[in-house]
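Example for tutorial group B:
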């Protein structure tokens, strides 16, 4: 038996006596976690704060995981969770608190005030930064992450001896025997498909457009996010800091980055954000990528001792800025359930985890679908295009002029509608 920190490895020699020929075949942990995105990393962090041991396996390298540019908006309640579990320090120093958001359509830019509507705010803090904070917290606590694993499998999840098998970065086979397994491996992971199809319900919708995302080395031209409806397509002006802008353009579902040189990108952005007396400052682009738009929910989120969290179980189109926040909300519930089961021997919270988490998931799925439907112009080929565009503008005018309607948007956007 070899003990590293709190990890107990059972070893088997594959030949000779040289330590370099050792193959580590098995270890035990309380919670095995597949995936080191925000879901897996935060779950491990919360469990560690409660004295519960976990092991993370991740198919990508640390560099890749930390550089993946994704979300930027963190809900009030999610910030509270990160703060409570010791990973909110840099967010509070470097994050930007936003108390509202602008909705725009030609000739109009109207602000929805979150604080006045529902007493909450959101924070602008890149998922890349949050991921770095979580990885650093884990490694500082001498807790391991197995990077660059392959052939991950979850076995016997419906028994009381579930395990994760995989090949480590050097190709050696390994096994982790667990009390519980958390499937935090995103939309393309293996966890969800471990649950038999016969007990899974899937609800999904693919949208006929994508987002072209641009990271630009230029100070934002706005103090708060602008969600703009335009006949040419939706545009979003977001940011990562006071020096770096994050912008998005609605493009056709079959379009790709090579069709969007910088000049075309800035021209389209200037057209879609155009407003008298306001100018968009352009600058060098640091990154461009295309995100397909999809709503997807797979239920239940539990099968035996396997629990799904985050994108492994659900995907929302990014218009509502909900994906990362749902991941944090899932994990906060899952951690509480596992702590209760492991430390008090009580299964009530693990039994209700799936239903509890799905309430927020469906609410966010509805909000993201609603925001997406209000803001993205239908393709010209849609026979109802003229009608739908008029409905969108009517909805935008209503939501920005009725206090009640604005409060509905604010409650959903900040996450106030369902407490963590
Ligand atoms: P992740 O981040 O996908 O992490 C899953 C991890 O699992 C690993 N993995 C495996 N590991 C081991 N074995 C396997 N077989 C594995 N298969 C996969 C992967 O390598 C990865 O490291 O899922 P997680 O942790 O659930 O986190 C979800 C969030 O990342 C996601 O919901 C958000 O990024 C969505 N999102 C946004 N969410 C917000 O709340 N606010 C936003 O403003 C926001 N903007 C966005 C977004 C997502 C976007 N894209 C690119 C989809 C903007 C965009 C453009
Ligand atoms: C982002 O900053 O990346 C972002 C902001 C708001 C969204 C989606 C993405 O709705």
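The residue assignment follows.
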């Amino acid at each position: 038996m070899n003990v590293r920190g709190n990890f107990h490895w059972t070893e088997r020699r594959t030949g000779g006596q040289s330590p370099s020929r050792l193959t580590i075949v098995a270890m035990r942990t309380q919670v095995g976690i597949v995936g080191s995105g925000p879901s897996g990393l935060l779950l491990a962090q919360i469990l560690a704060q409660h004295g519960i041991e976990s092991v993370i396996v991740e198919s990508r390298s640390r560099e890749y995981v930390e550089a993946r540019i994704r979300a930027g908006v963190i809900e009030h309640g999610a910030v509270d969770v990160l703060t409570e579990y010791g990973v909110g320090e840099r967010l509070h120093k470097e994050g930007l608190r936003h108390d509202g958001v602008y909705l725009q359509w030609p000739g109009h830019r109207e602000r929805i005030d979150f604080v006045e509507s529902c007493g909450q705010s959101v924070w602008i803090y890149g998922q890349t930064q949050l991921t770095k904070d979580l990885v650093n917290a884990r490694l500082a606590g001498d807790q391991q992450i197995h990077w660059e694993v392959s052939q991950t499998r979850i076995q016997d999840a419906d028994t009381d001896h579930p395990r994760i098998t995989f090949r480590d970065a050097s190709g050696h086979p390994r096994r982790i025997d667990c009390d519980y397994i958390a499937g935090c491996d995103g939309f393309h992971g293996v966890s969800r498909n471990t649950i038999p199809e016969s007990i899974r319900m899937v609800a999904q919708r693919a949208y006929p457009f994508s987002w072209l995302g641009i990271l630009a080395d230029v100070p934002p031209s706005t103090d708060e996010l602008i969600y703009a409806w335009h006949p040419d397509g939706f545009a979003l002006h977001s940011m990562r800091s006071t020096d770096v802008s994050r912008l998005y353009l609605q493009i056709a579902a079959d379009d790709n980055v090579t069709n969007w040189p910088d000049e075309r990108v800035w021209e389209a952005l200037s057209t879609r954000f155009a407003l008298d007396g306001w100018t968009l400052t352009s600058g060098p682009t640091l990154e461009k990528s295309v995100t397909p738009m999809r709503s997807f929910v797979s239920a239940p989120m539990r099968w035996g001792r396997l629990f799904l969290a985050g994108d492994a179980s659900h995907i929302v189109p990014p218009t509502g800025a909900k994906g990362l926040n749902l991941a944090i909300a899932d994990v906060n519930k899952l951690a509480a359930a596992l702590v209760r089961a492991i430390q008090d021997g009580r299964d009530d919270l693990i039994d209700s985890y799936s239903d509890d988490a799905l309430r927020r998931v469906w609410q966010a799925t509805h909000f993201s679908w609603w925001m997406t439907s209000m803001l993205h112009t239908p393709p010209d080929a849609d026979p109802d295009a003229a009608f739908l565009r008029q409905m969108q503008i009517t909805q935008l005018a209503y939501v920005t002029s009725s206090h009640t309607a604005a409060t509905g948007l604010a409650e959903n956007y900040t996450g106030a509608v369902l407490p963590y």
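The CA atoms of residues 200 and 336 lie 24 Å apart. Compare this with the pattern of hydrophobic and polar residues in the output above.
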